[in-house]
Design a protein that fits this description.
Layout (H helix, E strand, L loop, with lengths): L1 H67 L3 H7 L18 E2 L12 E3 L8 E10 L15 E11 L5 E12 L27
C-alpha cells in the first residue's frame, strides 16, 4: 500500500511541475508579445511625430514663399523632381509633388528628425504639396483660391533603410494673408489633420 502512495505522490509532483512549467512558458510568451506590441506602438508614434514635424516645416516654407509672391503656389504644383516620384495619397484626389524650396531648390525628401541619443532607428519625413480638389480653377496645377494641401510622410527606418513604420498627415493651408482661415479638411484622407489659418509665429 505504501508503494502505491509513493507512486501517486510522484505522479502528482510531476503534474504540478509540468503545470508550473507551462504557466512559466505562457508568461514568457505573453511578455514577448506585449513587448513587440509596445515597440510597434512606439514606432507608430515616432512616425506620427515625424510627420507632424514635417508639416510645421512645410507650413513655414509655403508661408515664406507665398508671402513674397502668391503665384509661387503654381510653381509648387508644377515642380518636377528628377529623383523623387510623385505621391498618390490615400483617399484620392490629385497626385502630390515633392515640396521644393523655390529659392534654394532644396527638396524636402527623407529629412531626418532629431532623436534621442542611443536610438538606432531614424525618423524622417518627406513633404509633398498638391492643389485642393475644391479649387475654383478645377485644375491640378493652377491655383485659384490660395489654398494648398501639404502632405507629410513620416517614417521610422532602420539602419539598412527598411521602413518600420509610416504615418501620413495632410493639412490644408489658406495662404490669403495673416489671420485668414483655411477651409475645413476634406475627410477623404482619414489620416489627415486640419489647420487653422496661416499665420507666421
Amino acid at each position: 500500500m505504501r508503494s502505491r502512495e509513493r507512486g501517486s505522490a510522484l505522479i502528482t509532483i510531476i503534474l504540478v511541475v509540468f503545470v508550473l512549467t507551462m504557466v512559466g512558458i505562457a508568461g514568457v510568451l505573453f511578455m514577448t508579445v506585449e513587448d513587440k506590441i509596445s515597440t510597434n506602438d512606439k514606432m507608430q508614434q515616432s512616425g506620427l511625430y515625424g510627420a507632424d514635424a514635417g508639416l510645421r516645416v512645410g507650413e513655414n516654407v509655403v508661408f515664406d514663399a507665398v508671402l513674397n509672391d502668391p503665384s509661387t503656389l503654381n510653381q509648387f504644383f508644377t515642380y518636377t523632381s528628377s529623383t523623387v516620384p510623385d505621391l498618390t495619397p490615400p483617399g484620392g484626389g490629385w497626385d502630390a509633388v515633392i515640396l521644393a524650396d523655390p529659392v534654394t531648390g532644396v527638396e524636402y525628401h527623407q529629412v531626418a528628425v532629431p532623436v534621442a541619443s542611443g536610438v538606432t532607428d531614424r525618423v524622417v519625413y518627406s513633404l509633398y504639396v498638391r492643389n485642393n480638389r475644391e479649387d475654383v480653377s478645377r485644375q491640378e496645377t493652377v491655383d485659384g483660391d490660395l489654398k494648398v494641401n501639404i502632405i507629410s510622410v513620416g517614417q521610422v527606418v532602420d539602419r539598412s533603410g527598411r521602413v518600420l513604420a509610416e504615418k501620413i498627415l495632410e493639412e490644408q493651408m489658406f495662404c490669403g494673408g495673416a489671420g485668414g482661415m483655411g477651409g475645413p479638411q476634406d475627410l477623404g484622407n482619414t489620416g489627415g489633420t486640419s489647420s487653422a489659418g496661416l499665420k507666421k509665429p
